């Protein structure tokens, strides 16, 4: 009986495969997704009236000349060099170490930190009008 069941199973598997094989062979591969016919069309966006920026910077100014970018761009303040930044980093590290070791008082530490922060504030860029206006 065991051999008979195995043969029935084998016959069933072969008959199922025999039925599925022609069906699979008849299938066609789908068209590529990147084909223009299958690409999703963008949806239309309806935009209503919007407020216009009334600030003087956003307004058109007729200066009678074309804008030019030929002038060299200059910074509002001289920028810190890499050497200065390295020196300041070393100074800050030494200051923190001296504070932890108790070599300087808390008041002296805070005074020096405030001094370095004031120097940092002086290095921040300042908003300037565009050169072409």
Order of helices and strands: HHH
Task: Report the biggest beta sheet as strand number plus sense, adding barrel if it closes.
Answer: none
Number of strands: 0
Rg, nearest Å: 39 Å
Tally of individual helices: 3
Runs with pLDDT <50, length 5+? none
Helix content: 40-55%
Q: Shape, please?
A: elongated
Kindly estimate the percentage of residues that lie in beta strands according to DSSP.
under 5%
Structural class: mainly alpha
Mean pLDDT across all residues, rounded?
75
Head-to-tail CA distance between termini: 99 Å
Q: Can you give a write-up of this model?
A:
With 133 residues, the protein is mainly α. Helix content is 47%, strand content 0%. Helix 2 packs antiparallel against helix 3. It is elongated. It starts with a helix and ends in a 10-residue tail after the last helix. The model has no long low-confidence stretch (mean pLDDT 75).
Notable traits:
single chain, 133 residues, mainly alpha
Provide the fold topology.
Elements: H1 2-26, H2 82-101, H3 106-123
Helix pairs in contact: 2-3
Short structural summary:
By secondary structure, the chain is an all-alpha fold. It is built from three helices and no strands.
